[in-house]
Write a structure and sequence with these properties.
Layout lengths: L12 E5 L5 E5 L41 E4 L6 E6 L4 E4 L8 E3 L5 E3 L4 E3 L9 E5 L4 E5 L7 E4 L18 E5 L11 E6 L4 E5 L13 E3 L5 E3 L8 E5 L2 E5 L13 E4 L2 E4 L6 E4 L9 E5 L3 E5 L9 E4 L19 E5 L11 E6 L4 E5 L15 E3 L3 E3 L8 E3 L7 E4 L11 E6 L9 E4 L5 E2 L4 E4 L5 E7 L4 E4 L1
Parallel strand pairs: 11-12, 24-25, 28-30, 29-31, 30-32, 31-33, 34-37
Antiparallel strand pairs: 1-2, 3-4, 4-5, 5-6, 6-7, 8-9, 9-10, 12-13, 13-14, 15-16, 17-18, 19-20, 21-22, 22-23, 25-26, 26-27, 32-36, 33-35, 36-37
Length: 475
């Protein structure tokens, strides 16, 4: 130790030997510009307090005890800096040995529970991170001073401006490796706009790639699965056109292939041969619809499962009710219900069906009413003979009686003709002179005879087929 040469009667240093060979140096340098120089090691045991110390150059402190170096303000025991020489850690603002902020020997950076880690400056407008075991949350607070956004980018582009304006709501942006100064549109964003969750793209499509399933949940938490083989599946938005391209391996329940949703209506802009859509999981159990190239639109009703070959038309309020048409029909049948709740009265319906023999109108209650104005086609007989065609002729207007006699031949009565009737009218008003003779076909009869005759001017008869007796009855 070299002491200043000018002592001036002041005590500069005191060497104290404790009787065990240890020498304690108590040094006081006061009122001097001299240096205290220690050559070799200076071992200090016990507490050492340095007050108003100013140093220049390198200061190396080699300590053994835990928390051996404590930096305090005005000696108030509120440690601002703690150096833990045993745990090999440094604590800032250390109220306890864990500190509000610490760097451990293993290299871990620790921020105390409930404390913020703030970037740039400690202001709410900047981005902050906070771990809080009280709320069981790790939070990232995005402030407007940093755009209220997190940008994930390539490390090479970290200093570049990615050109996102300040967002209203916290937003995550994920960029490609492209330099944003070359193209700043290659990003995906995720946010919630206070109404909806929004997934957006600055460029290109949003693609969902999955190893197995892509599962969508509806509002009730039920799953909507697109299946495990997603080859060929895509959703596209191109102006007003919306298309759903089907999976060539799996069947698709609804195939637009170039369709468009315009003003709430669903249309198909691309011609599709035998394009189909059907209901629920089976085209045979619940029915569907197909656009055929030669027959137009074909609709079929479910013939297995619970379909019963029925189609029920009802009001929206009763769409989830059981309308109790539980008996299977071999032939397809439509039921038209009124607004009555079927749980209250399930008989208020009208049915339409071709039962294999006849076209049938029936009801669950009341009668079948044919409104006034119902028209029937009129066939004009302007020659001496006419053969009635079932399904074509509905009314015969015989005008040839003004010229001569007329013979009308009825068709053979078959099972599908039950109740078929045809009026025959002398529209030539001369049947008294030139009769109209109506003949049955084969073994059929007319009022148990072979024929009937209209012999009065302007007279008419209506004849109806009775399939049980093969007899035409006159009304």
């Amino acid at each position: 130790m070299v002491l200043p040469t000018a002592l001036s009667g002041r005590e500069y240093a005191k060497f104290v030997e404790d009787g065990s060979g240890n020498v304690t140096i108590r040094a006081t340098i006061e009122g001097t510009t001299g240096d205290l120089t220690v050559n070799g090691d200076l071992d200090v045991t016990g507490d050492t307090t340095l007050v108003d110390v100013v140093t220049s150059g390198a200061v190396i402190i080699d300590l053994d005890d835990a928390e051996a170096l404590l930096v305090r303000k005005d000696g108030d025991a509120g440690d601002i800096l703690t150096v833990d020489t045993i745990g090999e850690s440094v604590f800032l603002n250390a109220i306890t040995t864990t500190g509000d902020f610490s760097v451990t020997a293993s290299g871990d950076v620790v921020v105390k529970d409930g404390k913020n880690f703030t970037f740039a400056s400690n202001a709410s407008t900047n981005t902050r991170m906070r771990g809080d075991t009280t709320t069981d949350e790790f939070k990232v607070g995005l402030g407007s001073g940093m755009g209220r956004q997190i940008v994930i980018t390539d490390s090479a582009n970290i200093a570049n401006d990615h050109d996102h304006t300040v967002t209203t709501d916290p937003t995550l942006f994920v960029h490609s490796a492209t330099d944003p100064d070359s193209d700043n549109t290659e990003w995906l964003s995720l946010t919630h706009n206070q109404t909806d969750a929004v997934l957006s793209s600055g460029k290109g499509a949003i693609k969902l790639n999955a190893f197995s399933n892509i599962v969508l949940l509806d509002a009730a938490g039920d799953t909507i699965s697109l299946g495990s083989d997603l080859t060929g599946w895509s959703l596209k938005q191109d102006g007003t056109d919306f298309s759903f391209l089907y999976n060539s391996v799996e069947k698709v329940y609804f195939d637009l292939n170039g369709g468009a949703i315009l003003d709430g209506n669903l249309s198909c802009s691309v011609a599709r041969t035998n394009a189909q859509h059907y209901h629920r999981a089976s085209e045979t159990a619940y029915g569907g619809q197909e656009q055929s190239t030669d027959d137009g639109t074909i609709q079929w009703l479910g013939s297995t499962g619970n379909g019963n070959n029925h189609w029920v038309v009802t009001v929206q309020a009763n769409k989830d009710k059981d309308h109790d048409h539980d008996t299977f029909d071999t032939q397809p049948k439509y039921f038209f219900h009124d607004e009555t709740d079927p749980d209250v009265d399930n008989t208020k319906w009208g049915g339409i069906q071709y039962d294999g023999n006849n076209f049938v109108l029936d009801t669950g209650s009341a009668a079948v009413q044919l409104k006034p104005g119902l028209s029937r086609p009129i066939t004009t007989v302007s020659g001496a003979t006419h053969t009635v065609t079932f399904g074509t002729d509905a009314y015969l207007s015989v005008t040839y009686t003004a010229t001569g006699a007329v013979t009308v031949t009825l068709p053979d009565i078959t099972a599908g003709m039950s109740g078929f009737e045809i009026p025959i009218k002398d529209s030539g008003y001369n049947a008294g002179t030139f009769n109209i003779t109506v003949n049955a076909d084969g073994s059929d009869t007319i009022e148990a005879g072979a024929s009937a005759v209209i012999s009065g001017d302007g007279d008419a008869i209506t004849i109806k087929a009775n399939v049980s007796t093969n007899n035409w009855e006159i009304f």
